[in-house]
Design goal:
The complex is a heterotrimer. Chain B has 16 helices and 2 strands. By secondary structure, chain B is mainly alpha-helical. Chain B has one domain. In chain B, a hairpin with a 2-residue loop joins strand 1 and strand 2. The relative contact order of chain B is 0.16. Chain C folds into 2 domains: 154 residues, Rossmann fold; 82 residues, Rossmann fold (3-Layer(aba) Sandwich). In chain C, strand 4 and strand 5 form a beta hairpin. Chain C starts with a strand and ends in a 12-residue tail after the last helix. Classes of the chains: A mainly alpha, B mainly alpha, C alpha/beta. Bound molecules: adenosine-5'-diphosphate and magnesium ion. The site of adenosine-5'-diphosphate has 13 residues of chain C, from strand 2 and helix 1.
């Protein structure tokens, strides 16, 4: 295998992997404050892309404004989901909450289909489509946007968790919900915030990816699965593990598709994920559960 | 009271269920509903098994549709492509499912919680992709046709009523066996694993073995359902065994009520028939479907059977407060 | 020495940097009640865990009835008659009180899956015997009137008794009790002491008791082992322990107002 084609696989793998990573990040943020896996996370990604399409093509807004509105819209929907369907039943068993999020994902998906359509849409590239050539491999400017924005989001979240009082409080929620409550951190507010942040992060991923891969009302299903896989691969609860997991899955897929078989592309990532879990049952960077008797 | 319950076992409720199911066709306006009910029975067979895994042993699987699919494709290929006799194909399909479940279960069941969900989910997706891509065997995404109708003792069950009787009978058998198992030391061991693994192992339960056992058992149930499905429709496609089907099976179990074998039946019937009732709403049917799911889970956390149980208990308490204590104990056993 | 039902020889347990047990040696004689005391974090629960197999010692050996237990998984040890209760109750809340106790008899079960599927005579016979034994165990602790209640609905003190019934029914040779009196009031504690004594005298069960309630410990114990910071501080009869100046300094004099938390 020559350098240029492996570089090519790496570029496309990292590009897609970054969105998986952002989706996984969204899973992690909600998991940390609530302990549940939000199966509607993929729909936030879909909302980012689709809302931008709607704003841009139907309302005729300029692209930057459309992108901004899409992100705002997804964040708002994240907040609504939390207030209406999660908060009233916070104490329910996790499996019930998971099924509620499954119901919500069906709701969001079919609402989008009804309000808009079933077609696939595309969004203009953020800065043109002239490819850049690196050692014989081509790189779309949009890929650079994706990697750059992902890096910015990661850095922003890191700062948020380390510096701001809200971020620290959210980490406290994750480590010790009772303790967080005892020191007067409003857990309810944190849960709301976590839904908003992960909807926002998901929407960012969706908006960035739409120009590269097209989007439609049902892209959230597969992206959600990949995001879940990303955060499990990285180790549940570790936001940066999720991002790394997403990149790893993207790259694995891309190399698998290019070198072995594109038909089994989606299978490679999952086979390797399973094998890894058998060796490290808590993911790459997850701490093994301490079992206390 | 306890002794008489033991003697009669689960025969009485299952018998009553069977009688109801046999009476239903006379009340149906339209034979189309018979096929819906048959599909509901098949889903119920899978759901009862999944409930033993999820509701009793507390282990989630987001890949059970794959086991239905494995059996369906195995029997499809064996009968349609290689002309194997029905009984041989049955043994082959179920044997294959059991073997795969054993091999997959051994490493996967070491995972816990969300990691287990991911492991089983990944398994389901891999199998689904294999169904799609090994086109020379399975026909790929467009599916596989020409699977013969089920034949019993040389008689092909072409009548929908006949097939309905068959799947109802199999469901009742599965129910009977499952209820019997739940009311034994094995059922107690599974429930023990659910609440406290450390207490379970300290009373002598070999946790890994029991998890594997119930995983394989539930996969075999799924395989039976898949077998019946393939020979009922005569046509199978990967989309009937994908991720969303696996998720729907879990939803059936939880929505029906995890505390009881009957909950799985209720959930399977409810979720299989719901889309038919929603059909009148045309475009908005999935929207309503999602809404009902969220609504039910928010306001009936114990599921359908649990909800009915609570209702009964409240009613009883308001009439005869002294009988409550004895009653609540019994209900847990369902 | 030859009669010792349980012998721990230089057992060491480490959790990362924490040395929870450093070279603990002790014995429990058949037919006695041996108490293990020591401040919170001394390693008492860890010692029980090492005996039941829920933690692996880094070194040392544990002999039960003359045979090594090292490396055996917990369910095998339970099968051999080593049973325990838990510091933080581990009741099966998804079962009735009776089912909890019947589950406790798991290790004596002989019928197979097919017997259960088809309710063979063997299943019926054994199940009836299990139920009788469970009712008897419930009677022994005084809970038979609550047999059909969901276990989660019992009052705290009764849940402690239920856990006792769940192990009694399994006819243990060695029973390890981890702070069974935690959270009980004075009267309940006294009844518990009586119960433990009856278990030894009427059922012939050898008991290793981890407990903070000194009155209870001094009352029922034949021998006492004092742990401190993962090591054996003293060992002897209740009288000897009460007179041991080291023990008094390290433990008895200071805090016997322990709470049930501590998580371990
Ligand atoms: N599973 C575990 N992981 C890490 N440290 C543990 C674990 N279990 C116990 N410990 C530590 O070992 C020491 C002894 O604990 P433990 O045996 O529970 O004490 P005791 O029961 O006497 O109160 C404590 O320092 C405790 O923090
Ligand atoms: Mg302790």
């Amino acid at each position: 295998m020559d350098v240029s084609s492996s570089l090519q696989y790496l570029f496309s793998g990292l590009t897609v992997g970054a969105t998986y990573g952002l989706t996984g990040l969204g899973f992690t943020i909600i998991f940390n404050t609530t302990g549940i896996i939000n199966f509607a996370q993929g729909e936030f990604v879909m909302l980012g892309g689709m809302l931008a399409v709607i704003c841009q093509s139907a309302l005729g807004l300029p692209l930057p404004l459309a992108v901004l509105l899409a992100m705002l819209g997804a964040t708002l929907i994240g907040a609504i989901v939390e207030r209406v369907a999660i908060r009233p039943v916070r104490t329910a068993p996790p499996i019930n909450l998971v099924i509620i999020t499954i119901g919500i994902s069906i709701l969001i998906r079919s609402a989008m289909m009804l309000l808009w359509d079933k077609d696939t849409h595309t969004l203009p590239h953020f800065s043109g489509t002239d490819p850049i050539t690196v050692l014989g491999a081509t790189l779309m400017p949009q890929s650079l946007w994706i990697l750059g924005i992902t890096a910015v989001v990661l850095y922003g979240l890191r700062t948020f968790f380390r510096r701001s009082i809200f971020g620290k409080a959210m980490l406290a929620c994750a480590h010790q919900r009772k303790a967080a409550w005892l020191v007067g951190i409003g857990v309810e507010g944190m849960v709301l915030l976590s839904f908003m942040i992960s909807a926002l992060v998901g929407a960012v991923g969706g908006v960035m990816l739409a120009p590269m891969t097209m989007t439609s009302y049902d892209v959230g299903i597969l992206l959600g699965l990949k995001g879940f896989a990303a955060c499990i691969l990285g180790g549940l609860g570790n936001p940066f593990g999720a991002a790394a997991g997403g990149l790893a899955i993207g790259v694995l897929e891309s190399f698998g598709a290019g070198m072995i078989s594109s038909a089994y592309k989606d299978a490679f990532a999952f086979i390797i994920l399973l094998l890894l879990l058998f060796v490290r049952p808590s993911g790459l960077f997850g701490k093994p559960e301490v079992r206390r008797v | 009271m306890i002794v008489s319950r033991l003697a009669s076992g689960a025969l009485l409720p299952v018998g009553a269920f069977l009688a109801t199911m046999l009476a239903v066709p006379f009340l149906l306006p339209n034979p189309y509903y018979l096929s819906i009910l048959s599909l509901a029975c098949m889903n119920a067979i899978t759901a009862v098994g999944l409930n033993m895994l999820l509701g009793f042993a507390g282990q989630i699987s987001l890949g059970h549709a794959a086991f239905c699919g494995l059996a369906a494709y195995a029997t499809g290929i064996a009968t349609a492509t290689y002309g194997l006799p029905m009984w041989g194909s049955f043994l082959l399909a179920i044997g294959l499912v059991a073997l795969v479940a054993l091999l997959v279960g051994m490493p996967t069941l070491k995972l816990t919680g969300h990691y287990l969900a991911m492991g089983t989910l990944g398994f389901g997706i891999i199998v689904y992709i294999v169904f799609n891509e090994s086109i020379e065997w399975t026909g790929g995404p467009s599916g596989m046709v020409g699977i013969p109708r089920l034949a019993l003792f040389g008689h092909e069950l072409w009548e929908d009523t006949e097939y309905y009787h068959l799947v109802t009978g199999v469901l009742c058998l599965v129910l009977l066996l499952s209820l019997n198992l739940i009311h034994s030391r094995f059922g107690r061991a599974l429930k023990a694993i659910h609440t406290s693994e450390k207490a379970a192992m300290c009373i002598g339960v070999d946790i890994a073995r029991y998890k594997l056992f119930v995983f394989v058992l539930s996969a075999v149930y799924a395989g039976i359902a898949g077998f019946l499905y393939a020979h009922y429709l005569g046509f199978i496609a990967p989309s009937s065994f994908g991720f969303h089907v696996s998720v729907q099976l879990v939803v059936m179990v939880v929505l029906g009520g995890m505390c009881s074998v009957w909950g799985a039946v209720a959930g399977a019937f409810f979720l299989t028939m719901l889309p038919e009732f929603l059909r009148v709403f045309e475009n908005v049917e999935t929207l309503i479907y999602g809404g009902i799911l969220v609504f039910c889970m928010m306001f009936m956390p114990q599921g359908i059977v649990g909800g009915i149980g609570t209702l009964f208990r409240v009613l009883r308490r308001s009439f005869r407060p002294e009988a409550v204590s004895a009653q609540t104990g019994e209900e847990r056993n369902g | 020495m030859a009669d010792s039902l349980l012998q721990c020889r230089e057992v060491c347990v480490r959790f990362g940097g924490v040395q929870a047990l450093s070279s603990v040696s002790c014995t429990v004689e058949k037919g006695t009640i041996t108490s293990i005391i020591g401040p919170n974090g001394a390693g008492k629960t860890t010692l029980l865990n090492a005996v039941t197999g829920t933690v692996d010692p880094a070194s040392g050996s544990i002999l039960f009835a003359g045979e090594g237990l090292t490396g055996l998984p917990p369910h095998v040890r339970a099968g051999r008659g080593v049973l325990r209760t838990f510091q933080n109750l581990e009741i099966f809340t998804n079962m009735t009180v009776l089912e909890n106790v019947m589950a406790g008899r798991h290790r004596m079960g002989r019928y197979g899956v097919l017997d259960a599927f088809f309710r063979t005579p063997r299943y019926r016979r054994e199940e009836r015997a299990t139920r009788d034994a469970a009712m008897h165990a419930l009677g022994f602790v005084g809970l038979e009137s609550m047999a059909l209640l969901p276990a989660g609905e019992l009052a705290y003190g009764n849940q402690r008794l239920l856990e006792m019934a769940r192990v009694i029914v399994a006819a243990p040779d060695l029973l390890l009790l981890d702070e069974p009196a935690a959270g009980l009031n004075m009267q309940e504690t006294r009844q518990l002491g009586e119960l433990i004594r009856r278990m030894r005298d009427e059922l012939g069960i050898t008991v290793a008791l981890v407990e903070h309630d000194m009155e209870l410990v001094m009352d029922v114990s034949d021998r006492i082992l004092v742990l401190s910071f993962g090591a054996v501080l003293a060992e002897g009869t209740p009288l000897e322990i009460q007179r041991n100046p080291e023990v008094v300094a390290a433990y008895l004099g200071t805090d016997d107002e322990e709470t049930t938390d501590g998580g371990a």
